[in-house]
What does this fold into?
Amino acid sequence: MSPIFENALDSLKVGMQFYMSGNQYSTRKHAILTVFHSIELMLKEYLYQVNPILIYRNIDKKITDNSATVGFSEILIRLENLNLGIPEEQAKAIRNLQSKRNRIEHHRYDHEDEDRELISQALKFILYFMEFQLQKLPEGLIEPELLENIRELVTDYNERHGVANHRLETWLKEKWPEWNIEEENTPEEFIGTDTCPQCRHEYLVMEQKDEPYCFWCCRGIPAEYCEICGQTKIEGVPCCEDYEPHLRIVT
It folds into this structure.
């Protein structure tokens, strides 16, 4: 086991200890920070497996123990350049957690119920990435009780995903009665869903009469498009001014 992966695994375990200790402000905040750190290190381990020198920021200078390594954004770019880009569904989980991490580190932590889904998405990515990209079975590296807790969170997320899909399909059928789900994914007239700025899932419909509605949150969301980056955000809340530029992962 490389030191990088060992570090990533330790951050995952510590992050889960924070998460499982309760839904307090401090425990959830540190769970998000530590689980994101685990993901960042696992991505760095992926680079390391390709070639150990790729984890360093400047590979044209002599490498020492004190040489700076690549940050999160640089890791994603290098993986793209190596044709090892992260699939879009997995990339969304990373971007969602990174967005929350950025807010905590650079501004404040908004303690929200939706953080459970955020962590669940991240854990789903970690289990997949460990087994199928890093070729490391979680069963042999994570204690059975902790792994069971992780899998329960992932299962809960998958079930909620199915419920949200059913809600959206029911609404589509009511709005477009002639639509046949077996013939096409969505009605031709439907402009599609956006990322909900509250829960960060792509179940936000902006074309509702009263206000945008999220079929994951199951309620109206005061959302609007950012005039700078075009992403959805909560009305009146700054977007691009306070955070790092939005990452785009090409697969």
User: Anything to note?
Assistant: The first helix runs from residue 3 to 20. The mean pLDDT is 87.
